[in-house]
């Protein structure tokens, strides 16, 4: 992927090259943690696990030990891409009827124990290591444990989001079950500032237990007991039985062929299908330039359609009323493309049957590559931290519908529509590499833009990430980054779009890309200039 070696957009960084290994994340210390494992002889999978563990410490504003995770893993010897779904189901006691008894009928709560589903991340780490890792599992946690125990200085963007969450939570999370969150993340009654040290002995000890037991302590040991006890104390639904029953699932990745490349995503319950549907709609279009209102318009309209379908139909695949292959069919793509005009439209779901985080990418010198994402949700997640453990629990259940007729209706033991998605590209059955853009419902929109920036507009990885972004919000409303050229803004307004200029670039996700040259093995990486992103290489 070296069609373009320059960066046409103002950037904080230039594209990074390496031969022996590369780790790209939103946190420099996490990238270095993964690199440390590569230098010890670990492969890309080992590095991904180590990096992910570090990110639970160095970016708790986006993920934690109580997160969910997904991975796409390219194993060079197999010449094959593997998918791992590490998202957990709703607890067996959590149902629409149970919530009705508590007076909850309109929407799943965002905070507290109610939206907590079974965390999948620790089990995903262990399963990745069991199947593909080289180094001992326990060794992979040394960098993360060191940062948690000894402390690390906050980076600037991390401190900004930490402070925002602290201000918001101080006003809204006032009941007793949230006290451990404040004890853990606001030591001394305030959020740490940029450059200040933060540490958590509880977090370090928990990571040690996970490392020593290959995650068994979290699901069947003393950590599970602590989660169960705290849940019972505060009227939660998650139990030790729910934890003990969980195992991550190996899945077959889904893909679409886009202009010579195969773009891969995890199948539902993830929203990666949305990105593939949008690309499918535009795969026969030719775009002469990226920076025109026509290009932006057709991207936005295709994404509107795909997202509307996704929100209507996507849930755990066995509960979906539409088949994935129908939603990705050429016939349905042609039908949806025919509905796009020169003017903005109000999107409606179609009928295919008739035709929400941290993201990291790793690569080693042998050709193995990993696209990995793990997340709480809405920042720090549910606001629930299990006392003295550093375990911050996600709130993924917030995405369940309480309408029993909806495809994504809450059902005990069911996995909800999930926002976090890793991406991967191949060409002619060879790996091009991992890519991802974290950030709730921005993620499939970011995936579409990264793929088109790479394939249609020949941008190198850093330029593809630095290019100004858009995000469809709802109806005809689209949010543009402040760096989008004025002529595009005016052109979209003329086409009937309701345009908002975002006050800052935090709304547009944070991405990483690593591409591999199949002939030389040289790695080319880009990292997010909108955050504290860093690429570690050797």
Automatic annotation (TrEMBL):
GO terms for molecular function: leukotriene C4 gamma-glutamyl transferase activity. Pfam families: G_glu_transpept. It is an enzyme of class 2 (transferase). Gene3D superfamilies: 1.10.246.230, 3.60.20.40. The keyword tRNA-binding does not apply. Its EC number is 2.3.2.2. InterPro entries: GGT-like_enzyme (IPR052896), GGT_ssub_C (IPR043137), Ntn_hydrolases_N (IPR029055). Keywords: Acyltransferase, Transferase. This is Gamma-glutamyltranspeptidase.
């Amino acid at each position: 992927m070296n069609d373009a070696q320059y960066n046409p957009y103002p950037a904080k960084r230039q594209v990074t090259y390496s031969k022996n290994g590369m780790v790209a994340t939103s946190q420099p210390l996490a990238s270095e943690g993964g690199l440390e494992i590569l230098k010890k002889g670990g492969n890309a999978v080992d590095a991904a696990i180590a990096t992910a563990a570090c990110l639970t410490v160095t970016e708790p504003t986006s993920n934690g030990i109580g997160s969910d995770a997904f991975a796409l893993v390219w194993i060079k010897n197999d010449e094959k891409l593997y998918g791992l779904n590490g998202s957990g189901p709703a607890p067996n006691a959590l149902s629409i009827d149970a919530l009705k008894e508590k007076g909850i009928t309109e929407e799943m709560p965002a905070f507290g124990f109610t939206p907590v589903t079974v965390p999948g991340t620790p089990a995903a780490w262990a399963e990745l290591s069991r199947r593909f890792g080289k180094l001992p599992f326990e060794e992979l946690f040394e960098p993360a444990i060191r940062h948690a125990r000894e402390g690390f200085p906050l980076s600037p963007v991390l401190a900004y989001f930490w402070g925002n969450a602290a201000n918001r939570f101080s006003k809204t999370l006032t009941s007793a079950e949230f006290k451990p969150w404040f004890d853990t993340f606001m030591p001394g009654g305030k959020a740490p500032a940029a450059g200040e040290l933060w540490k958590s002995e509880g977090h370090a000890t928990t990571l040690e237990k996970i490392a020593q037991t290959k995650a068994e302590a979290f699901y069947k040991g003393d950590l599970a007991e602590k989660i169960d006890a705290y849940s019972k104390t505060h009227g939660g639904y998650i139990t030790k039985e729910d934890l003990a029953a969980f195992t991550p699932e190996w899945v077959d990745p889904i893909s679409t062929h886009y202009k010579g490349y195969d773009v891969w995503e995890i199948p539902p319950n993830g929203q990666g299908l949305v990105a593939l549907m949008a690309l499918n709609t535009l795969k026969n279009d030719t775009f002469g330039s990226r920076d025109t209102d026509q290009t932006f318009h057709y991207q936005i309209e295709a994404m509107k359609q795909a997202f509307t379908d996704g929100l209507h139909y996507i849930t755990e695949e066995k509960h979906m009323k539409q088949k994935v292959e129908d939603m990705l069919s050429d016939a349905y793509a042609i039908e949806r493309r025919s509905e796009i005009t020169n003017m903005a439209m109000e999107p409606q779901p179609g009928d295919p049957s008739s035709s929400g985080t941290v993201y990291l990418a790793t690569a080693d010198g042998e050709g193995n590559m990993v696209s990995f994402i793990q997340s709480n949700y809405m920042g720090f997640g549910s606001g629930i931290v299990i006392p003295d453990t550093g375990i911050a629990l996600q709130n993924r259940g917030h995405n369940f519908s309480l309408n029993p007729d909806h495809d994504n209706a809450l059902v005990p033991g069911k996995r909800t529509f999930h926002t976090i998605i890793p991406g991967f590209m191949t060409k002619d059955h060879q790996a091009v590499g991992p890519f991802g853009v974290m950030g709730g419902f921005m993620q499939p929109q970011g995936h579409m833009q990264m793929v088109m920036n790479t394939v249609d507009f020949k941008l190198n990885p850093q330029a593809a990430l630095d290019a100004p972004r858009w995000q469809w919000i709802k109806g005809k409303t689209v949010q543009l980054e402040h760096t989008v050229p004025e002529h595009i803004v005016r052109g979209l307004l003329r086409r009937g779009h309701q345009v908002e200029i975002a006050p800052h670039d935090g709304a547009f996700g944070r991405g990483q890309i690593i591409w591999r040259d199949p002939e030389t093995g040289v790695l080319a990486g880009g990292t997010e200039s909108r955050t504290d992103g860093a690429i570690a290489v050797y």
